[in-house]
Design a protein that fits this description.
The complex is a heterodimer of chains A (about 450) and B (about 60).
Chain A (H helix, E strand, L loop, with lengths): L17 H6 L1 H12 L2 E6 L2 E6 L2 H9 L5 E2 L8 H4 L9 H7 L7 H18 L6 E5 H17 L2 H4 L7 H9 L14 H27 L6 H7 L11 H32 L1 H14 L8 H5 L2 H13 L5 E6 L3 E3 L2 E3 L4 E5 H4 L43 H18 E5 L8 E2 L6 E2 L4 E6 L6
Parallel strand pairs in A: 2-8
Antiparallel strand pairs in A: 1-2, 3-5, 4-12, 5-8, 6-7, 9-12, 10-11
Chain B lengths: L1 E4 L9 H5 L4 E3 L6 E3 L9 H10 L5 E4 L2
Antiparallel strand pairs in B: 1-4, 2-3
The chains are: A alpha+beta (about 450), B alpha+beta (about 60).
């Protein structure tokens, strides 16, 4: 017994719902939910995509093995960004290996907290007593440094500077859904994407050449990869492939954390009662002058709830996709091989059936008596199941370390009308729309 | 008390191994958790509770018998 999957209204010939996806993806996915229910089909150019909604359907999606719902085939717009041989161009077996990145193991994590705090101090050292800062520029630069130091190595981080920030911005801007038609159309955003990737390859080539010329004994992840040889003596990974790994690590660990940091600070400014509570919590926690340590960061419940609520309302990824490799059954519906399957983080996180008063910024929903994040297939800012973001714990620790410094050193306030801060959803990678400035002022009784 | 593991959720972060090395290890081949003692003694309750609480993927549960 199989029921027909309802089709969403409104697609146009050839392109289907692609233009609506580029204009207002969250609105499109919500409309599909409202019109079709738990299961609904939309079209992106020639590709059919079945959207799954609600806790049960999402659990089925997240528990499906790779052999059934494949992740790589669903993200064609990422291939030109990462390049050949990396992440979504790699086999499932190669990708499973990548998950074992030891820098994300708990043991390594215990060493990352102080480095992130120090990096935050360093990037704000020239701020002075008062001024204003563009959140996208600031947090993008900060998280490129913190993530590369932790995931690749402190020495590699020292090779980086602010000139890399616009390159990553161009790569992120190259994730246009029009890639479902063709990821190499002659569009300005795709040209900028390809140019940025070339510049990054040249940058890394320069790093390796400089290290070789200076005879430096470097030990970071990329230097090690660079020296691995095949049995015939040729290099195992060329510089383009290592660049792809760099880009993939930064896509996973930097733009997401950067966007979340920005929104967390904006929500705290918009909700001063929560700002007051978080600042008091941090002041009390670090009153004895203790370090921003791993253990300290574990017990900051108010800040943690604010971050969780920020991720619920402003998830840096709004849509997760797979491609069906075998017939995929959910209740009475069957998804055919070749169809794409999607779960919308943005829609799920604001589902009134799953969250009380879902449009409201209310961190107390994560307090011990409510714990709305316990429903792990409903609260899904990091996805769920076997493909859940492996960096989720690192991200939360990193966010807490950053705010442990910023909020104890400075007071912040909006520099623009509150409703002028928006996410730009025109690309598959969500960015904060510029301008997005806030003002800061050094706190009078700031802890040392 | 008993330890329940959802292996679909485990990603081998190893928090449980740090919190309660008496009870957990990581499988060398799969990188997933291995429970060393399915029915842990009462003395290890606090360590087990910390492992459950801090598991980043919520893959562990403590079930009272």
């Amino acid at each position: 017994m199989s029921r027909a999957i309802p089709r969403l209204s409104g697609g146009i010939p050839l392109l289907g719902h692609l233009l609506e996806m580029r204009r207002d993806p969250v609105g499109l996915m919500q409309r599909c939910r409202d019109e079709c229910g738990d299961v609904g089909e939309l079209r992106l150019a020639g590709q059919s995509m079945v959207m799954l909604y609600g806790e049960d359907a999402q659990e089925a999606f997240f528990r499906a093995p790779e052999e059934q719902l494949d992740q790589a085939a669903a993200y064609p717009f990422m291939k030109p960004v990462f390049g050949p041989g990396v992440v979504f161009d790699a086999t499932p077996e190669q990708r499973k290996q990548a998950l074992r990145n030891r820098s994300l193991r708990d043991q390594a994590m215990r060493g990352h907290a102080q480095g992130i705090a120090a990096e935050t101090e360093r990037l704000t050292a020239h701020w002075g007593d008062a001024g204003s800062v563009d959140l996208l520029d600031f947090f993008a630069e900060l998280t490129i440094y913190t993530s590369s130091a932790a995931l690749i190595g402190p020495e590699f981080r020292e090779e980086l500077n602010a000139e890399l920030v616009p390159l990553f911005h161009d790569l992120e801007g190259g994730t246009d859904a029009i890639a479902y038609v063709n990821p190499n159309l002659p569009l300005p955003s795709f040209r900028r994407r390809d140019r940025a990737r070339k510049q990054l390859v040249a940058f890394l080539q320069g790093v390796f050449e400089r290290r070789a010329a200076e005879g430096r004994e470097s030990k970071d992840l990329f230097q090690i990869l660079h020296t691995i040889k095949n049995p015939d003596g040729s290099p195992r990974y060329d510089v383009s492939t290592i660049t792809g790994m760099f880009i993939s690590l930064m896509f996973a660990g930097h733009h997401t954390t950067s966007t979340t940091s920005s929104w967390a600070l904006l929500e705290l400014c918009r909700n001063p009662q929560w700002m007051t509570r978080v600042v008091a919590e941090l002041d009390a926690l670090f009153a004895d002058g203790g370090d921003v340590s791993y253990q300290a960061l574990r017990e900051i419940p108010t800040l943690e709830s604010v971050l969780k609520e920020t991720l619920r309302l402003h998830p840096p990824l709004i849509l997760l996709m797979r491609k069906a490799m075998t017939p995929f059954q959910h209740k009475d519906w069957t998804i055919a091989p070749g169809q794409m399957v999607g779960v919308s983080i943005a829609v799920s996180n604001r589902d009134p059936a799953l969250f009380a008063d879902p449009q409201r910024f209310d961190p107390s929903r994560f307090a011990p008596d409510r714990e709305e994040d316990q429903r792990i297939f409903a609260y899904i800012p990091f996805g769920a199941g076997r493909h859940r973001c492996v960096g989720a714990a690192f991200a939360m620790m990193q966010l807490k370390a950053i705010f442990s410094i910023l909020l104890r050193r400075y007071e912040f306030e909006l520099a623009q009308p509150a409703e002028s801060y928006k996410s730009d959803h025109s690309k598959m990678v969500v960015q904060l729309a510029q301008p997005c400035r806030v003002r800061y002022r050094r706190r009078k009784q700031s802890a040392s | 008390m008993k330890i329940q593991v959802d292996l679909d959720l485990c990603q081998g972060h190893g928090v449980c191994v740090e919190e309660a090395p008496e009870l957990f290890a990581l499988d060398a081949a799969t990188s997933k958790v291995v429970v060393l003692e399915a029915n842990p003694p009462e003395a290890l309750r606090a360590k087990l509770a910390a492992a459950v609480k801090y598991c980043p993927t919520r893959a562990l549960r403590l079930v009272e018998e």
